[in-house]
Write a structure and sequence with these properties.
Layout: H1 2-26, H2 31-65, H3 69-82, H4 84-108, E1 109-115, E2 118-123, H5 127-130, H6 133-144, E3 156-162, H7 171-181, E4 185-193, E5 196-201, H8 204-216, E6 228-231, E7 235-243, H9 250-259, E8 261-268, E9 274-281, E10 286-298, E11 302-311, E12 315-319, E13 324-335, E14 338-351, E15 356-363, E16 381-382, E17 388-390, E18 393-395, E19 398-401, E20 407-409, E21 414-421, E22 427-434, E23 437-444, E24 446-447, E25 454-455, E26 460-463, E27 474-481, E28 484-486
Parallel strand pairs: 11-15
Antiparallel strand pairs: 1-2, 1-3, 4-5, 4-7, 6-10, 8-9, 10-13, 12-15, 13-14, 16-19, 17-18, 19-27, 20-26, 21-22, 21-25, 22-23, 23-27, 24-26, 27-28
Helix pairs in contact: 1-4, 2-3, 2-4, 3-4, 6-7, 8-9
The structure holds zinc ion.
Length: about 500
Amino acid sequence: MAKRQALIEKLWLIGAILVDLADDILDETFEILKVGAEWLVDLAGSLVTVVDWILDHISWGITYFGLLFLRRVHNTRMSLIKYRRQIQNGAFYFIVSGLAIAFLFSHYINYAYSYNGRTMGIVREQKDVLEVLDLASEELTQEYGLKVAIDGDSDITFKPVLSFKKEIDKPDNVLKKFTYMGDIQTKAYGFYVNGIRIGTVQSEEIGNSVVQTIINRYIKGNAGDYDYVGINEKVRISEVDVPLTQINSKDALLKIIDQGAINEYRTTDENGNETVVKEEVPILTVKTVGEETFTETIKYETKTVESDSYYEGDEFVQTAGSDGKRAVTARVTRVNGEIVTREDLRNEVIIQPVTKVIIKGTKERPPTVGSGTFILPVNGGVDTSSFGWRWGRMHEGIDIGASTGTPIMASDGGTVITAGWNGGYGLCVDIDHGGGYMTRYGHCSSIYVSVGEQVFQGQTIAAVGSTGWSTGPHCHFEIRIDGVAYNPLDFL
Ligand SMILES: [Zn+2]
């Protein structure tokens, strides 16, 4: 506790010294700052009051529960009251000294400016340099015939410096310095690609970092994981003497490289006409060789299985096919990111494809013409006495009782002539068997055939139901010859 107090007091003392120092500079002209500081001190004072209030209430609550904790809180509060004055003073010194330091810094911070690494002078503000750059570039271009464009972003760097008595360049000094700069020959490094100098940089390191920057564009993850990483062209960085203005910044050199080169060549067509072909080619190409993993789709296969369980012409999908997936690890050679060669090393199936299976029926279709013999259309209970006069009217067929959904088969081969609603018969199917013979199936719950369809004896055509005038699920079955109904039991 005592140690901390001593430290705080020391800090306040330093603050006070700074305030004294700042006072000399601030003088009376900074009355505004003082007013601001006083306001902050008032704020700090009210904060202490709020803390007092909170502590009062906390200690009341704690007293009530008779906890030992009370004493510590109370002591803290007492010392807060005791040191309140000191805290207030401390806040004042702290704030005022902070303002003074900020003022000092803003007043004495200047900027050393450099052109591509060469320090040229000190200015009060960065704009003193930036605003004359265009003019300087123009004058240099006129005077030396050099195509000079000084770029504020990439050619000029600023470094904040504290300076009191050092010489500060005014904008016209800056302009003069830039204009004379064209004369200065300096040692630099030419950046050669296949023997052609494409730029000049300040140091070998900058040249190497340009190469590295270009390589890094095509490296994914760790460069050490590749079998080979390199530049296809021959790059050489060697010392040259050039005018200062010819030095490129790293960004400027990268820009030159990124613009690419125009490759010109002549071709002769079959008629002997010569044409000049111009194509844009990259100045540097990065080659990488390394293992990569690709996820690929495995297309499913389709298999057709013949089955004599189904009739000829019947075809259906038994198993739907689905694509699989595999991970292929390959050694891949890329040039500027584009795959040039790929040698697959191994692959692992992640998801097995599912073969599509089509079942194709081979069983010979039974004839769809009447045979002259009839079968019972439903496996169910035949009401043998149902044909004939009943309740004062003619019942023209027999009723076969079966539960709803039981298949109804064609009694003989033939052509469907009715398939749908037919008054009291409900959902009804009529089949023409030729030779005047016709069968009828009434009260169906659903119908599986349509008008015009050829059916064979025993083919499922409908399902038992209770549609139309019906009191329960059954099939009403009729056999007619030239429209006249006969007792079907006589034909079965
Ligand atoms: Zn009936």
